[in-house]
Amino acid sequence: MTAANYPKLFEPLKVGNKTIKNRVLMGSMHTGLEDRAKNYPKLAEYFRQRAAGEAGIIVTGGIAPNISGWVGPFSGFLKYGFQVKRHRLITDAVHQEGGLICMQILHSGRYGYHPFNVSATDKQSPITPFKPKKLTEKKIHKQIKDFVNCAKLAQKANYDGVEIMGSEGYLINQFISPRTNDRDDAWGGSFANRTKFALEIVKQTRAAVGENFIIIFRLSMLELVSNGSSIDEVIQLAKLMEQAGVSIINTGIGWHEARVPTIATMVPRAGFAWVTELIKKEVNVPLVTTNRINHPQVAEDIIQSGKADMVSMARPFLADPALVQKSRTGDVKDINICIGCNQACLDHVFKNKMASCLVNPAACHEDEFIKQTPKIKKNIAVVGAGMAGLSCSTTLAERGHQVTLFEAADKIGGQFNLAAAIPGKEEFEHTISYFTHLLDKHGVNLKLNSQVTAADLAGFDEVVIASGVTPRVPGIEGIDHAKVILYHDLLSGRKTAGKKVAVIGAGGIGFDVSEYLSVENPDQAQTIDEFCAEWGIDKSIESAGGLVKAHDEKSAREIYMLQRKTSKPGKGLGKTTGWIHRLALKKKGVKTLTGVNYEKIDDQGLHITVKEKSQVLDVDHVIICAGQVSNKDLYQEQDNYHIIGGADLAAELDAKRAIKQGTLLGMKL
């Protein structure tokens, strides 16, 4: 399979006097590297690798035009001439690889997590603690001037263009949408007045940078909030943007305060391409569609069907910098597919940590992950083919070591196989397939169904124990009753639950198990139409903001999810996805109980005490999701023995830590 298999995806696109060599735009992602001048060499290497990997055109993370536009305190901004030099590190690196790069200008408006934020009105955002100051007419003109100045400085820094961020609920969007703009002057009220701010920024920027500098406008096409823009307004603004001189229109989906998932793994692939298609026939300027496009065939199908002219892939470039190049050369099995988990990218950024990637810990840390050929090639045993063992063994073998990988089960993947069984986490299978390919590619000697003893490991130069975890069995009276099922037996299909179920444990595994139990056919992925119905998305976008009444499909079972702690269930879930899991189970009618003491399990069901009141849950089965215990029986305190993954630390299942730990050890030995 080569570029010939994706003819539309690899068709060049002329924009002004520039030619984009394929139809893939690397979408903007805030990594945290943008915020400190000292990190720009690191950021340059990050972008250099994506340009070398043949991204058609790259868009940087958001850079504010001034301090009021900061996303957070001291985040990246470009307002002064002395700041240009650091950006040239980026543009030089990209241009040396023959790539194109645009800088995103992002003013956070009321989303700014700092006391200097401003907006169209003084309405406070529900996701930040700071109330914005309402911009006066004079200060509106000053903001426009700062956008234009920022674009001119970007041009001076040798960027090929800018993307003006007009979506996702940031400042420009706050002027456009009636939800946040009820001004009664020339900048609010009517559609013409609400869009004036955006149009003035584009018109004045175009006048300042000339006709050949690329201007991408990120247009909010589906806001997913009440009192938002309608499809007629979106189309009208798209036409006005074309007339104002934009080179490309990029699709913006949802606001950060929207209570609808837009990029998490449960969103079907290309789940919002239909939005871009609604606008496509109305304008002639190239349109980019976005969200949950992570495979070249998905991208090809979108372009081929005429839904969009280009596709935006953001997180997939974290997972694999060379995904476009591999698509062109036919090495599709070699692509490390983004699984949309958010655990090391968005979750990190929203905690003010450097972004990375669960399946590729080298992302944003490229200069720290350099695989060198070892001076002495060793014979190394790795015990356990979960995420830690797989990442370690494939890294060792890639460097040139002889590696034997022992796995007690009949297949690789460990606990990741259980995660892949959860509805909405089907993408996790790709990571297992990827490692299967790498084992073969790098010549790892895989021994399945192998129960290893210490004697089996005696002849190896180095031994890596990555034997993972087993479910923790709590000391509850009746824990050996026939009603009891351990979570791994349920998710692996070895056991089946009845219609009434109690789930002990409300951490990540408890939520996953409850989602699995709540669906009639957990192995059947949702269609786009089913997803839109569940989350109340109006596919006509005739309603303001594109929201309609959600279709609340009740759980296939009666489910109680219980925890000993009195804190909110799922407190440790991912920052950007936890709310989705909590809301999804609530919509399905799953009952949650906190502060629970477990008394016993018998034929009557599960006996519990809550707030000193005893009760019996009449359930068919009790699913145990009460944590894990490390499998470290084979580990020895010797210099040539190493322990990683769940065998090292049996916390909440943490594939991110396991893959990173395995990779780092694989680079070190």
Report on the architecture of this protein.
- In the N-terminal section; belongs to the NADH:flavin oxidoreductase/NADH oxidase family.
- Its cofactor is [4Fe-4S] cluster; FMN.
- Keywords: Flavoprotein, FMN, Iron, Iron-sulfur, Metal-binding, Oxidoreductase.
- This is 2,4-dienoyl-CoA reductase (NADPH2).
- The chain has an 8-stranded parallel beta barrel with strand order 3-4-5-8-9-10-11-12, surrounded by 7 helices.
- Helices cover 30% and strands 17% of the residues.
- The protein has 3 domains: 3-368, Aldolase class I (TIM Barrel); 379-471 and 629-668, NAD(P)-binding Rossmann-like Domain (Rossmann fold); 484-519 and 556-626, FAD/NAD(P)-binding domain (3-Layer(bba) Sandwich), CATH 3.50.50.
- α9 links the parallel β11 (287-289) and β12 (310-313).
- α1 (40-52) runs parallel beside α2 (84-96), α13 runs parallel beside α20 (655-668) and α17 (508-518) packs parallel to α19.
- It has 669 residues and is of the alpha/beta class.
Q: List the uncertain runs.
A: none
Rg from alpha-carbon coordinates: 26 Å
CATH homologous superfamily placement of the largest domain: Aldolase class I
Total domains, how many?
A: 3
Strand content: 15-25%
Structural class: alpha/beta
Shape: globular
Q: Largest sheet, if any?
A: 8 strands, parallel, barrel
Overall pLDDT confidence: 93
User: Count the strands?
Assistant: 27
Helical amount: 25-40%
Distance between the termini: 35 Å
Largest beta sheet: what is the strand line-up?
3-4-5-8-9-10-11-12
Look at the structure and give the CATH class of the largest domain: Alpha Beta
**Would you tell me which CATH topology of the largest domain applies?**
TIM Barrel
Give the second-level CATH assignment, the architecture of the largest domain.
Answer: Alpha-Beta Barrel
Tally of helical segments: 20
